[in-house]
Backbone:
């Protein structure tokens, strides 16, 4: 797997590159700015671009705007946004068009290398990775008493959280130590209870769940 | 009291004497006319004019002693009598005088028209010219005419010459007519430009000006023919008899307005703000009246809403009356200049409104403080937001970043402990260094939020501050006991911000920080020997400091003359 890293902090960039190289990832380029990132992507065509949200010059949302640009010009390049904090609003902005090949994680997730690598791989293969913190923010926000989410069993809630993170049935099964078939049964039940359209496509599934949990208002 | 009583009785004596004089003169003028059989009515009317002026003038004088309108009317009336009564003496000397002054009353009448309704107004150039024209026509040319005119018992006749006398007479008449027309135009122009109270007060001058026009026309007619048109004679005479009464009515109306002060007193209890201003405007008959409250705290005037008010410059059209209560300035009333003549009315209204004004002023002051407070609160909130933003930035770019990196290094370290101990050792060293830096950064940040060194007392905290300062800083703390915590924190930040300013802008070589007790609280002073020229309008730092100090009820002063350094001093109250 070939990745490009964009982060204005040298410490993070180097640390991340070393970790990923240790894990067998081919870090083809590193950069500190959003503009340079686009150049690097056009020359290296990596599988994934790992992008920090805040970068020079304004240190606000340069990374997000670069991600949108990459999506537009190189749709086959996966984008993994890393940030010191995660917000539902930013997640919905990122995933409005499509969740395919998009990830949004806290920077600290890097220290759990196995999980991080799994997420990176999903993004590289066109799947999704949404930080658990975003998902729990979505699920714990104020809801009315008759919300169908309240009908879910504790196990089903665990499953829907993992679905929202972008994991496949297999990944969910491994995480919860249950069989893939059991996961499938839970997912079917959840989708029935919430009245969602079933989909075997992982990233369509995450969109349906996200759209349900955080309807995007236009 | 004794003096004013004497003045009063002296004036009463004067008025009584004038009444007697006027009555005697009227009797002397009228007696032969009424005892004459079939006296023409216009002749009777003519002999009443002087009495009308004198009587109405005396009444007006009595009502409004401060106004010149009454005396002017009395003088006009008496001058009117002079010619008529002196003629009765059958003495050449008396008649000569009588002829000479026969038309002097016209001058005082004109002055009355120009002056009415009075007030502290200046005479404009046009009015001076018109008055001068009348003086020329009725004094100078009249005397010149007497030098040549062959009339009986004219002692002033020097060169009898009928032709010259006629030319002078006609010149005088034409000049008098022209001046009458000019005066009427002047008055009309003044009327158009006048404010409402002035218009209303000067309304009686209108029939006066009309009468003057008829008189002018009558004089003009005399140039061409000896006959007098009844269409000019009658309006002139009726006008001259009635105009004093109209003037008197005008004076009386202004006097009656004082009754409105009574109504004002009744209403005052439940009145404040704009209604109070409206009530004053009504009582004084000046809708443009403005009420301004004096706010000693702010050293400026404000309206009832507490908004700062710039008083108009005293340009002769607007006047200012300062209202005082118990010797302290409470408010100011800005009013139309025409009200100056109503000094007594104004005094009465101001006195009546005094108490309500004092309460109102306190309310206005309160509103002004609330406005100032809201602005300061908004600034404090803004400064707080900015400060939190700065902290977040620092945390995000600093310690947080380092800790994440540290986590990554530990991750890298794990597998190398066994396989590559040398690399692992190097990684541990880097990680430890990173950790030390993070701890430093966090300490700095925490210090910015609240200087923990303050726990050891203000003196210690200020010493540490001085040690960090890039400019040589001496600290002197003269306190017998510790200050309340909020005061210590505020004092610390005053010193901290002031020292930061010194380092940035002052180009100073030494700074002295002094903390001492003051009757009003704690006094913090930071004085440098730099270039000066600092003000709180420029930077948000000093403004923010002022807000912090004022929030505790204190005051921040900046003295920064160019070239002699800057002294920032804050007095912070220490509670009870």
Residues:
């Amino acid at each position: 797997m070939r990745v490009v890293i964009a982060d204005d902090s040298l410490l993070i960039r180097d640390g991340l590159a070393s970790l990923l190289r240790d894990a067998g990832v081919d870090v083809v380029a590193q950069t500190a700015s959003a503009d340079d990132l686009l150049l690097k992507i056009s020359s290296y065509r990596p599988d994934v671009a790992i992008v920090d949200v805040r970068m020079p010059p304004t240190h606000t949302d340069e990374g997000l705007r670069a991600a949108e640009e990459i999506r537009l010009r190189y749709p086959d390049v996966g984008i993994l946004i890393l940030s010191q904090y995660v917000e539902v609003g930013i997640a919905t902005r990122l995933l409005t068009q499509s969740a395919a090949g998009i990830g949004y994680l806290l920077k600290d997730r890097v220290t759990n290398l196995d999980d991080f690598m799994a997420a990176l791989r999903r993004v590289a293969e066109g799947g999704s990775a949404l930080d658990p913190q975003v998902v729990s923010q979505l699920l714990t926000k104020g809801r009315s008493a008759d919300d169908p989410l309240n009908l879910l069993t504790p196990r089903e809630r665990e499953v829907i959280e993992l679905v929202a993170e972008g994991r496949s049935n297999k990944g969910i099964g491994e995480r919860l130590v249950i069989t893939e078939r059991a996961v499938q049964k839970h997912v079917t039940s959840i989708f029935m209870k919430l009245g969602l359209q079933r989909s075997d496509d992982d990233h369509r599934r995450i969109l349906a769940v996200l759209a349900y949990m955080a309807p995007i208002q236009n | 009291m004794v003096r004013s009583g004497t003045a009063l009785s002296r004036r009463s004596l004067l008025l009584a004497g004038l009444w007697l004089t006027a009555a005697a003169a009227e009797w002397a003028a009228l007696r032969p006319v009424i005892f004459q059989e079939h006296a023409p009515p216009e002749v009777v009317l003519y002999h009443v004019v002087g009495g009308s002026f004198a009587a109405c003038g005396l009444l007006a004088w009595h009502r409004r002693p401060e106004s010149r309108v009454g005396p002017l009317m009395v003088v006009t009336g008496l001058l009117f009598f002079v010619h008529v009564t002196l003629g009765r003496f059958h003495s050449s000397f008396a008649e000569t005088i009588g002829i000479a002054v026969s038309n002097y009353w016209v001058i005082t009448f004109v002055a009355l028209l120009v002056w009415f309704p009075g007030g502290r107004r200046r005479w404009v150039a046009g009015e001076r010219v018109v008055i001068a024209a009348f003086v020329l026509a009725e004094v100078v040319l009249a005397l010149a005419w007497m030098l040549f005119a062959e009339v009986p018992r004219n002692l002033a006749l020097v060169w009898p010459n009928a032709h010259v006398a006629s030319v002078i007479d006609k010149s005088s008449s034409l000049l008098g007519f022209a001046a009458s027309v000019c005066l009427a135009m002047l008055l009309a122009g003044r009327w158009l430009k006048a404010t409402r109270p002035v218009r209303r007060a000067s309304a009686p001058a209108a029939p006066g000006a009309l009468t003057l026009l008829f008189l002018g026309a009558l004089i003009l007619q005399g140039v061409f023919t000896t006959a007098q048109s009844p269409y000019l004679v009658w309006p002139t005479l009726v006008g001259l008899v009635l105009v004093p009464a109209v003037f008197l009515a005008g004076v009386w109306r202004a006097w009656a307005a004082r009754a409105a002060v009574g109504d004002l007193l009744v209403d005052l209890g439940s009145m404040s703000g704009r209604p109070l201003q409206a009530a004053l405007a009504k009582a004084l008959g000046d809708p443009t009246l403005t009420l301004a409250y004096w706010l000693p705290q702010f050293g400026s005037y404000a309206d009832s809403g507490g908004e700062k008010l710039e008083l108009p410059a005293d340009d002769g059209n607007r006047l200012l009356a300062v209202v005082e209560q118990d010797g302290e300035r409470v408010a100011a009333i800005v009013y139309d200049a025409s009200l100056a003549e109503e000094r007594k009315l104004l005094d009465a209204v101001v006195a009546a409104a005094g108490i309500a004004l004092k309460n109102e002023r306190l309310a206005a002051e309160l509103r002004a403080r609330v406005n100032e407070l809201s602005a300061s609160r908004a600034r404090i909130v803004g400064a707080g937001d900015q400060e939190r933003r700065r902290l977040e930035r620092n945390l995000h770019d600093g310690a947080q970043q380092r800790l994440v990196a540290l986590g990554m290094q530990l991750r890298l370290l794990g597998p190398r402990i066994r396989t590559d101990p040398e690399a692992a050792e190097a990684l541990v060293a880097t990680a430890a260094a990173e950790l030390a830096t993070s701890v430093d950064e966090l300490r700095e940040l925490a210090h910015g939020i609240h200087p923990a060194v303050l726990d050891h007392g203000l003196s210690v905290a200020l010493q540490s501050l001085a040690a960090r300062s890039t400019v040589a800083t001496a600290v002197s703390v003269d306190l017998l006991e510790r200050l309340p915590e909020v005061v210590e924190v505020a004092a610390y930040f005053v010193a901290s911000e002031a020292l930061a300013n010194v380092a940035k802008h002052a180009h100073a070589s030494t700074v002295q920080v002094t903390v001492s007790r003051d009757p009003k609280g704690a006094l913090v002073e930071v004085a440098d020997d730099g270039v000066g020229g600092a003000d709180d309008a420029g930077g948000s730092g000093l403004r923010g400091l002022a807000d912090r100090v004022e929030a505790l009820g204190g005051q921040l002063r900046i003295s920064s003359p160019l070239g002699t350094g800057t002294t920032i001093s804050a007095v912070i109250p220490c509670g009870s």
Q: What stands out?
A: The longest helix of chain B spans residues 343-419. Chain B touches chain A through 16 residues (CB under 8 Å). Chain B has a mean pLDDT of 82.
